Amino acid sequence: MSIERVFVAGAGLMGHGIAQVHAAIGKQVTLYEPELGRARAGRDRIAGNLERAVAKGRLSEQERQAILDRITPTDRLDAVADADLVIEAVFEDVEVKTRLWRELDALAPGRAIFATNTSSISIDRLARALAPSRRPAFVGMHFFSPVPVMPLIELIRGAATADETEAAIRGLAAELGKQVIVSADRPGFIVNRILMPLLAEAMRAYEEKLGTAEDIDTGARVGLNHPMGPLELADFIGLDVCLGVMKVLHEGLGGEQFRPPKVLVELVAAGHLGQKTGRGFYTYPRG
């Protein structure tokens, strides 16, 4: 199946990046948020990303404008009616995603492939929102942040996912220049199953005053040769996102290594979500 028109539901951290990379390879992209201002803000973030690429000599001004011209912000869910591919990139919450997929199922054309960017929630659980006839076209397509930079897509098949759906996503990933790994439909999939216990243990070390945030992160960067320390990485991902994924892992798999640390729960409850709010394990300047 040829994928030319992409509908991205969610214009936040992940959604705007997903929209950008598809527009960059020539796809017509509709970027949806229930409030038009938020959809336009997502497109503005893409414009800023592209402006920096122009300044670094990676894009011409004409290429930048052509990419932007292929992105249409909207607050109308029925704009999905001509989509070949629908990618959902909203908050990591089962009820939020289920409600949205139920609405999209009623509006999208029968030919459309449905892909969720969930980082931890079961594909089969989300597929229950869809008519049984739609489920073979439903798949997990998990991008990594920042989407224009990170070269990986985690593909997760549900019990009903058709071979043709997997083949279409693999073909699109090749167009995007992304490498694909395939995960079984288990809590957290592959990457977060590995990553979240690491972040949680670093948080517990911080709780126990084993070291400062700086020393813990330096230990990982220098001692383990990681590009970012685990606490810095958690702030970058978003502490609310980390908490949500850890809850899914702990509920699905058990094990103390997956239990959300107390310090994480407290930071999220206080509204300190990391870089996006200006405070998490570190404090960040505005802008």
Structural notes for this entry:
The chain has 287 residues and is α/β, with parallel strands linked by helices. The protein folds into two domains: 5-183, NAD(P)-binding Rossmann-like Domain (Rossmann fold); 192-277, N-(1-d-carboxylethyl)-l-norvaline Dehydrogenase, domain 2 (Orthogonal Bundle). The chain has eleven helices and eight strands. It has helices spanning 13-24, 36-55, 61-69, 94-107, 123-127, 163-176, 191-207, 213-223, 230-237, 239-253, 262-269; strands at 5-9, 28-32, 71-74, 85-88, 113-116, 138-143, 152-157, 179-183. Strands 3-2-1-4-5-6-7-8 form an eight-stranded mixed β-sheet, sandwiched between helices. The model has no long low-confidence stretch (mean pLDDT 97).
Please tag this protein with its features.
alpha/beta, N-(1-d-carboxylethyl)-l-norvaline Dehydrogenase, domain 2, eight-stranded mixed beta sheet, globular, Rossmann fold, 2 domains, single chain, 11 helices, 46% helix, 14% strand
